[in-house]
Each structure stands twice: as structure tokens, then as C-alpha cells.
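Example: Branched-chain amino acid ABC transporter permease.
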Amino acid sequence: MTRETVFSIVIVIGLLAAAFIAQAMGETFYITLATRMAILGLAATGLNIALGLGGLVSFGHAAFFGIGGYAAGILATHAFNSEPLLFGLPGTNQMIVIWITGAIAAALVATLIGLISLRTSGVYFIMITLAFAQMIYYFAISWPAYGGEDGLSIYVRNAFPGTNTLAPMSFFLICFGLLVIGLILFALIRDSRFGAALQAGRQNETRLAAVGIGPFRIRLVAFVLSAMMTALAGALFADLNRFVSPSMFSWHMSGELIVLIIIGGVGRLAGPLAGAIVYVLFEFALGGITEHWQFFLGLILLAVVLFARGGVMGLLAGRARHG
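Written out as C-alpha cells, the predicted fold is:
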């Protein structure tokens, strides 16, 4: 077991322990903070597949985050109002169905975006993914059937079999369980032959092509898997807030996910989660003091880029082993 794996397990267990301590103290607000950390950690872990392993700096992952959120909001609204969807299909308040729907929708959109954007690289890839996300953002704003720029309320949190999702601890455990699954999936991808090829393509795609492996197909699969995980987090985020709005599609959200990865450690197993913990703690600790708390977060980001490029995980576990 590597040092990075040990510290990753410590961070994950630490988040779980913090939630149980908050539960024992009767502080449900802190359970909600832990839930937010888990959801953002899952969303950033999804992006970490594309960015950390594949070197794909996507400024469009807010599109998939928002798709997951709107899948939860739209299906729940139609179920609540007993109104059919397209082709007479019913809405639903079942989380598992919502997660699958959001993931499939994100996969379809990611395939379309990937087929176009992955034929480019560098700043062109960044701008194309950003452009697609902004197109979806403005579509959501001009979609009055689901609230337009005012967003859409989810009146009752969606259901999970055998669980009272309105209980903060129960909902946290659902989010935490999906986070752990996401981290395990990331580790399996990273250590697989597919992950090795993906990381090799990041370093030298010419050599990868020379051994008969097409970088484009590998990156497309990684991009789609990344989008599906981020969409799952978006559905959870909508249920946490019981509200979805076009801001979930905003480029600010994409930038936030990238910041989480950089702070925690690009390509590191628990890097996105570590970044999410730091981000939410700063938001909570400084947000009540000044509305400009992100200025101080920016100073931390600058320090990480200049002096600790491995992020929090780099400081704890040392340099990463590159595939």
C-alpha cells in the first residue's frame, strides 16, 4: 500500500468521522457541510479522470454537473405534479432512476462534445468545451417551462429505497457511499491498462499511436466516463439544495471544479476530495466574515501553483508516481 493510498484513506475516513461527530453533537448544519464536501469531491473526481489522467483541461464540465441537477429537478417536478414527460413517460422521485437518467443524458452530450472538441488540443479544447457549456447555460436561462433564470425548486427531496433522505445523516451516507465508489472507480481506471494508455497519451500521444493505440478513442471514453460521474454529483447537489438553476451550468462552476483539483492534487486519488474540504472550510470560515473570501482562496491557489504543485496530497504523500 502506497503512502498516497494511506493518506487518501485517512482523508475519506476523516470526512466520515466528522459527520458522525456532528451527528453526536446534534449539529446537523455540519453534516450538511460534510455532504457538500462529498458531493463536490465526487464531481471533481469525475473531472480528475479527464484532467488528471488524460490531461484534458475541460472548462465545460459544468454542463454535465447541470445536466445531472436538472435531471433530478425535472423528473421530481413532474412526479410531484403528476404530469407526464415527453411521449407520456412519467416523472419519478426515485434517486436511482434519476442518477441513471442524468448519467445517460450526460454521456450523450459528452459524446457529442467530445467528438468535436477532442480533435483539438490546448487552448482550442478549453474554448470549445467552454463554448458548449455556455450554450447549454443560455438554453437553461431561456427555458421557461423549468423556471428559466429563476431556477426550479424541488419541493421534497427525492427518495432512496429503505432510507429517509430528509434526515441529514442518511443523505450524507448516500453521498459518501457514492463518493467512495467514485474514488474506487478512479483508482481502477488509473491502475488499468486503459488508464496507463490514457496517461501515456497525455505525455506523448505520438508514441501511443506508434504502438497501435488511438489516443482519440481513449480520450473520448475517458471524457464520457468523467461526464457521467460529474452528472451524478450534480443530481446529488440538486437534492442537497432542493433547487436547481442555470448557475449549475456556468463557467464559474467549471472553474471551481478545476480549482478543487489543483488545490488537492492533479491526478491524485483523494486530491479532489481534499480540495473540496479546503474549499468548503474556507467558504464557511471566511464567508461569514467577508463576501470577498475567495480572494484568500485565490492566494492559496497561487501558493499551490508556485510552491506545492502536488497540492495537499503532494504535501502529505510526496510526489506522484506517473503512469
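The mean pLDDT is 92.
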